[in-house]
Amino acid sequence: MKGRPRMNKQFIKLAAIAFVFTACTNENTTVVAEEIETQEPAMTNGFGDIPSSKVLVLGTYHFNQENHYDELSEENQEQMARLLDTLAKFNPTKVVIEKEVRLDSLYNNFYQKYLNDESVLVKKPNEAFQVGYRLAKKLGHDRIYLFDDQTEFIGSLKDFTFNKLNEERVKDSVFVDKYMSDIKESFAARQKEFEALSLYDNLLMRNSPESNQWNAERMHLYETRIGIQDSWMGPDWLGRWYQRNLRMMANVMKVNNPGNDRILIVVGDNHKWVLDTLFGFNPEFEVVSSYELLK
Predict the structure, then answer these.
(1) What is the 3-state secondary structure (H, E, C) of 219-268?
(2) 234-281, pLDDT tens digit by residue?
(3) CA 271-273-277 angle, 5° bins
(4) How far apart are CA 223 and CA 236, in angstroms?
């Protein structure tokens, strides 16, 4: 049963004080009401004093996996040099690559070889080397950092393959008929746009807010729709994606020196939207726009 709104004690006290009684000799007592302005106390932000490090997430395509680019060609190496010069303006204290933390010794031993002999990267087009290693050396870093975590496939995702995901998708004819043609057309149009761009501009476009929005919307429209109230494979796949990226962020937290670091992360562009979101919610970090820097 609903009653009248309760008046808090502070309000009652202030209301009582507001009445000032003035007594005059041989005159009637007069009650004077004075208006007293009060203001609700501001809510305290309990995390405002936590020192934050700056973090910049550079989303890339996976080098050597798109046939229209030869990252090691003379032209693209010039594009790479421009990219490294631009990223160096962020002045990162740590460079992080998309490799699993358990392989830290392997990749850092190879980094030490690279510091002594640049030729070891001549046939290694992967972005971890061409961007991560080269940037770290350019800045005089004595090591690089890894942060990936290939999270387990459990429950409906046990023995997961994309073929199995597709088999689940085609069970839902409503989804197939309503959305798949739009998704395919949109994806093909985006790929055509990427192929027409230089390497530098390709990365610029992939780091744009519009590109991040597209990646996030596609995953929530496509993956999440598969197996609803049946196998749940699609929502579970996206849940695993969030879990993986949460662990990636946590791995960065472990090496962060709050308030003193400027951390640059090189990672596949489909990670960028979720990592930017996760870091943005973490008081230990202040997200810096990779798009604004590249632009």
Answers:
(1) HHHCHHHCCCCCCCHHHHHHHHHHHHHHHHHHHHHHHCCCCCCEEEEEEE
(2) 999 999 999 999 999 999 999 999 999 999 999 999 999 999 999 999
(3) 115
(4) 9
Nearest to 58 by CA among 257, 287, 242: 287
**Looking at residue 43, what DSSP letter applies?**
P
Q: Is residue 189 predicted with pLDDT exceeding 80?
A: yes
Query: What three-state secondary structure class fits 67?
Result: coil
Whose CA is closest to 268, among 93, 150, 162, 164? Answer: 150
- The answer to whether 22 and 34 have CB atoms below 8 angstroms apart is no
Question: What are the helix and strand counts (H, E) for the chain?
Answer: 13, 7
pLDDT in tens, 25-83: 444 444 444 555 556 666 666 677 889 999 999 999 999 877 778 999 999 999 999 99
- Look up residue 200 and give its two tokens: 């530098």
Which residue type is seen at 282?
N
Give me the mean pLDDT over the 137-148 stretch: 98
Q: Of how many residues is the chain composed?
A: 295
> Where are the domains positioned within the chain?
52-295
User: Do residues 172 and 255 make contact, with C-beta atoms less than 8 angstroms apart?
Assistant: no
Helix, strand or coil, per DSSP, at residue 72: coil
CA atoms within 13 A on the CB side of 237: 23
Q: What is the dihedral of CA 150, 154, 160, 162, to 10 degrees?
A: -70
Interacting residues of 280 by C-beta distance below 8 A, sequence separation 6+: 287
Place of tokens 């995953």: 219
Residue-level pLDDT at 170:
87
